Request: fold
Amino acid sequence: MNEIKRINKAKKLVYVTSVLQFQGFIGPVLFVFYTYYMGLSTAQYLIADALLFFVMAIAEIPSGMIADSIGRKKVLVLSKVAIIFGMVLLLITKSFGGAIIVAIIYGIFGAMESGIIGSNIYELFYRNDLIKEYELIGAKSSSIAFFVSVIYAILSGYLVELNYALPVILDLIISIITLILIIYLLDDKKDYEKRNILSSFPKKQEFNNIFPIIAIASLLLCFSRTIYSFYQPILLSLKFPLYLLGYASACYSIICGISATFYKKIRTKLTSDQMMSFIIIIQLICSVGMFLINSLAIVFFILLQQFQRAIMAPFFYMQVNGYISNDSKNRVTIMSIYYFLTTILSCCLLFLSSKIIEHKGIETSIAVISIIINILVILSWLLLSRKKRKGRIVYYIKE
Reply:
C-alpha cells in the first residue's frame, strides 16, 4: 500500500472515531447510571471511578511496551474486544462489586488501547512531512467530536429517563462498529523487532526530555477530568431535573466545538509558550470560580473550563509528541508514560475527593484538590521554562 492510501485511510479513521465515540451516550449521565441503575452512593461512584484510573495507570506503561514490541494493531483489537465484554457485564451486574469488576476490565484494556491510533498516525504524517496538517486535522476532528457529542448528550438525558440501561446498550453497538472499522482502516506498517519488552522503556536522556511537558499536561488534564466528575452532583444539588443533565452536557460540547473550530486561529497567533501561559491562566480562573458551588454562577466557570479543555487537548498532544524524536522506537511507550501520569493523578484526586466528601462535603473537596494541582502546575511550568532557557531539552518540531 502506498503512502497516499495510508494517509487517506488514516484521515478516515481520525474522523470516524471522532463521530463514533466511546461512552458517548452514557458519559453525560454516568453518575445517574451508577447511582440509579447500579445502586451506588456518590462516594462509591467516585471510588469506582478512582479504581478505574488506578488500574489504568498501573497497566499503562506495560501495555505501551507490549504494543511497541509485538504489534500495535493486535493489542488494540484485543483491548476493544475486552471492553465490549465489559460493557455487557456492566448491564447484567447491578452492584458495587459489579462496578468494581468492570472498572478493572476498563482500566486494563483501556490502557492497552491508549495512544496506539494516535502514535501510528502521527508517525505516518511525520514521515511524509505533514505534521502541521496533522495538528489541524486533530483540531478539526475534535471540533466534529464535540458537536456530535451534543447529539449524544441531548439524547442521553431522554434515554436515561426512559430506561437507565439504554445509553449503555447504544454505546455497546457503537463499540462493535468501531472495532470493525479499526480492523479495516488502521494501518500498522511498523516493523516489530524480536526484542526484550523491557528494551521498549525510554532511556534516561529521552525520559528527562519529555518529563517537564508531560508533568504540566498531566496535571491540567487530570484536574479537568476530576472536576468533570463533580458536574452532575453539582447540577443535581442545584435542582436540575434529570433530562437537563443531557442538555448541560450538550452545552459543554457546543462550547468545546466552537473553541476547537477556532483552534487554528488561536494557535497561529500564539507561540507554544504563550499558548501554555494562556491555558494555565484559564486554569487558575476556573479553580477560583469552582468555589461558587451553591450558585448558578458556577455554570459559567464550568463552561469556561470546557473552553480550556477543547484547546489544551490537541495542543498538549502535539507538544508531548514534539519532545519525542521520530527516530525513537518507543513512541507508544513514551505516550503511555504521559497517560500513566494523567490517570494515576486522576485516580489519587478522585479517591481523595471521595474521602473528603464523606467527612467535609463537595466544597472542601474542590478547594483542596484545586490548591494542590495549581501549586504543582506552577512548579512544573517553572521547571520547563528553566530547562528550555538552559538548552537541556530538545523540541523536535519547528515553530
